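Students often ask what a 'structure token' actually looks like in practice. Rather than answer in the abstract, let us consider Kinetochore-associated protein 1, a protein of 1407 residues. Its sequence is given first.
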Amino acid sequence: MSFDVNAIIRVEDKDETILDYDYISEENFLVIVALTNTGKLHVITKNFGVQKVETTTITDIYPEWHESILLVITPDASTICLVQTNGSVIILPLKSLIEVSWGVSSSICSNPILISIDTGHLEPLHKLPTAAVSFTSRLNHKSYLAYGNKGGKILVIDLNVKTVVAWISAGATIENMEYYSDTGSGSLIVTHFVGAQILVKVESEHCGVRETLAHAKIEEINYSTGDKFSCHHVDNAVIALNPNASTVKVFANLNGLQELPLSTLKVPQYTWDLFYSQKYIISVTDDNHVYLNLHFIKSESGSPKILEIANVEEKFLGIVPIISSTDELDDCVFATEKQIVVCTPKISINELVLKFLATEYFSPKLLVEIAMNLQREPQAMAKTLLEVALKRQADGIENECELNGALALTLELKLEMPTIIQTLAQFNQSDLIIPFLMARCERDPQQWSALLELYITKLRKLPNKQLAEDEAKKAQLEADLNKCFMKCTATKETFMLLLKHNMWSCISMLLSKESDQFTETVAAFLLESPTLREISKSALSTCLSFFDWSTIESITGPLLKKLVTCLFDVTTISQLGMFASIGENLIPKAPGPATVFYAISTIRFLQLIQEDPSFSLYTTPTIIAMGSNCAAVIGEDNMPYFWGEFTAGTLKFRTDPRKATSVINGKADVAATKSGSHLKQVLLPEKFDLPTESGVDLRIVAVAAGTEHVLMLTLNGAVYACGRNRYGQCGVGHRDFVFKPTRVEPTYGRATHIFAGHYHSGIINEQNEVFLWGWAMYGQLATDGENVDDFSPILIPQKVTCLPTDSPVKTIALGYAHTLFLFENGKVYGCGSSSVGQLAYDPSKISKITDSLTPIKQKRIKQIPIVEHVKLLSSTYFHAVAITKSNKIYEWGIAPHTLRMRAFLIKRFNNSQRNAAKKEGNGEPKKAGEDAEDPMKSLPEKVKTELSKEYMKLHLVTQFPEKELIEQVSAGYSHNAIITENGDLYTWGKSLDMQLGHGNKVEKEAPWKLVEPYDTKWKYVVAGRCSTMAISSCGRVYVWGRNDKSQLGHGNTKKAETQRKVFLRSNNKQAAKSVELPNDNCIVRPTPLPGLHAAVSEMVSYTQREQTLTAVLAKADQQTLVSISRYLSKHPVPVFPSVFIHLSSGDVLNAVELLVTICENSKLLSESNKKSATANTLSAASVPSRSVAGSPISPIKGAKNELNRNTLSPSPMQKSTDDKNGNASPTPDAAPQPLLLSPGATAQLDQFDASLDKTWNLVRIHPFKDVQTLAILRMLQARFPIYNRLAADSRLCRLVDPFLEYPPSASSSASSSVHSSDSAGSRKLVDLVVRERFSLIKVAKVSSSKAKAVRQRLEHGNTLDQLRYYADCSHYEKCVIESGHAKAEFAAMRSRLRKCSRCVAKGRPPP
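Now compare that with the structural description of the same chain:
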């Protein structure tokens, strides 16, 4: 710290010096008058910042001036008293020296006056004045002057009457005098030349100056301590300076000198003069150094901060204090014999404090002490320091340490958060508080709202259109807001801001929490938007999945119609699956638009599945997993999300493999020191950072979680892992921590299933082989116990070779230290630990077991004794659950803590029974000679002497109703869960941590249905340690149970309640011991994870989706089918369901075009297929063609055996012409056949056969000849096998004959065989017999130019709008605009029944 030193007055003449000076200093007011040896008076005034300086010679004012030696200013600053060497006093009005605005009406004098003092009785030397002081009486308000001389006399002069009122003998030469006054009296502190001090009382509470001095009493001040007292200080304080000890004692007043001081402060050594205030002490040492002692600032060691102001070369006269109540450091003014100097500090007191705290690591304790010393509020001072730091940065003085420290102090002192944010916003530095708030939010959830408000302030400042460089900032702000919305909600204004800036992830988060409040707003925004193409389809699908559609039933239809327009832009399978699920669920609310939305989404989904070659490998999707204290979910973006921590938590077991030391294999476990590792607790769901490998599809389809690791399965069968890996369970060839997902050593080929135990892992590959690795202590890796004695961890996947070969493995289950295998024949085998019944041993057949928890190592594969066929199996901890084909639930094994609790209860029960037996007979002892019985024989029979081992045996839990088939099961630590085929979720077991989801801690012995949330269909469930996670059919992730390690993804949910205590009694009569129980940290009922949507579409197979689409379209009305067909005609999707939708709506041409595209893309009509299709020769028996009217995608039985048969026999279907509409109806004996849709080449041939059959039938009955002609020509161009059908139909041959071109040889051959007299090529196709037609059509070519002309006619004619086809009756009808209510209702009925007018009117059943 430095000062600007400037001289206000300087005596230029080398022979001129300042003899004396005096001052009046008050807040915003200062008067200084200096007297020189040449008789000059220098006057300085400063009033409210206005400074004046004047110099006057005394003789100019008062010519009779005698040499003056002392100068005093009266307390009212109106008069100057000059004490001359002869003892006389000249009084001058201040206004005669300088123009001032005060002292005009002074009662002392208006002109210079000489007061002569008769000191003739004193010796000349003793007359010399040495010290003077002026004061005002508290009783009569008169001004007095007191001065002392070398003779030790004190003269008191009444300045109003200009006379001496008292002579007082002080006893020795007087060096200095100071006047002290309090509320009751006034006194003079007189300092002798030898340093002794006396106290002279000049006024009392009831007596004036004259009366008091008439009986003046002189009181000696204790000089033995070496203290020198002074009173010209702030707040009327009395200061005792001890130069020898370099200390200053501060007393409240003169009456408290005998008491302990208020404080004792250090000053520089050899200090002889000082000025004290609450802010600082100005000290002057013997060598004329001036110091600033900032006594309000003390370091942790207690040392004050002392700064040197100046080094004065001239004789130092004294200090002029500056009185101020501002936050600034006051100027320091002092007088020397040559000048009056002002020292101005270059920084404020707040800057000084800020710099000091920076050296003391911004200690809040020090700041509180400093604030108290300055008599300020600590919080207010912390705010001021923050403002100072911000201002310094705004001025270009960047010091990140100071700024962050000041901000930290405001938080530590609990300054109101809005105040902090407002302060930062004034300097546009709101971002600075974010890291501090983030850290505090984890400890104090109430801080989330403050953090949210901060982000919203930034959101308001975002421009409507961001530049490229601003997009990253916007993305980061969106991610930050997303975290806040997990804990907070948004106002309507904030929500509209989010919509304005397209922050869809935040919108999804809010919808997932409060869908009823925000659904209508988002729906209205989507409807008003001119286009939906700019909205991310991933965000859009997520938002729609969180909609509360019941709140927008009136606009559901229009919204779905608009959403259909953007479906063709969606290119992600998971998003299309989500859209399809939404549409399917909305069909009951808006049948038409929802069916269109669902059908198009599903068709696009099937298209992408067919186009993706990676789907050729069948993998089992497992989209959620739970470890002991962690969880993983595959989101709809096919990315894995993780939360929780890699610890076992409170799980304790005698066979626990963990060591007390942190050294593994001689290496320190440094995982905790690595940044980015998931060893640290992850409070909220976070994405795994997957490695990027060129040419490798890392789409995750399955996850599995153990206690300390996570496995991930990609679509192409690769497995990745990360975690602590202490036992090699990550399978990467070592036991070091795996910080990021790393590929497991590919010894397994391509995996289809992954499994994670606590410390070991497993895989089933596409050859149905099992691979295990990791912890092997108890034989859980099935390493054939006869040949392998080493059970050290296996670090890479190792094939299991000791499994039975009579049936392939269906699935496996990895528990804590055991492994179970379920085979396709329904048998279950196991290996590993069986200490608590994991392998269902019969306890009666086990020998040498002394402890119920003694580890039993099963080194060989052992069959679990279940006589029925098992279809489902689960085991993740110490017990297992199996579901049989007959819907029976079997269970074996037990959790160790449950076993210990049973043992404890039995022991307590036995003790109580023994005590009761001893008290029988009133406790009288047996008499001598009586038979002494064994005390155990007299115990009641119900006393249990040992723990039953029935838990080790297999037992039936319940026979579940066969009408509710169980589709999935999960066994947790002490509870279980199942899901039935209709989507109901049942749980049973322990519920101390609310893990059953029923809202209570009641244990359930049998499966109990979960009723909340209402009307939810469940898709998958995982039972964890003391918590449960499940996903609904729409992909919502629900969690409930224990959350002490943030394993439920909701962050810290611990309640801030009073700690619960339990008092334990002592057996040795000591005081009871209190034990604090942890606060309840559970989620009681199923609660959705905000913003996270699981990839539930991955769990629905291709065949299931096709079957569901078939069922939905079978119920759709005709208008809906037409709408879907029109959309698909604009956006063709080359899959067979699209073909059948076109056919069901009567659009033959688009159906044919799609069939051609499908065949070209899939090479369906390759030479091999053609040979197979035309295996029947012309001499084969005729096979009737089939009608495929009715359901557009219905399976056909035996279609494979009759694929595209080209026969010569005409179709037995007889035509019945409808004269009114021109329809040719098939006879009722041609019943519709269902069409089987499934992937694979064979299934595609089946679908093509069925599609071609129905296409041909619609072509035959189509009313427009141009449509018939163009459809047949297009099929002939694509070489569709329709030659026999066309040859058998003379009417169609007549239509296409003009458009066909025949080779000359074929034409001549056909002509000569029938009519040899006719010239070649002169006969028409209809004139030939069927056999000749067949041969000729097969080699004919289509005239492209003629076909093009037909197409142009059709495009101009718009035939689709002229006809309406009805799928259920297979009739075309002219499209007429209906007018009138009755006709409109009749048209709606036809559409609903999918029948034409005549069929509806006659009640004719569909063919």
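One point worth highlighting: The longest helix spans residues 896-918. Ask yourself how you might have guessed this from the sequence alone, and why that guess would often be unreliable.
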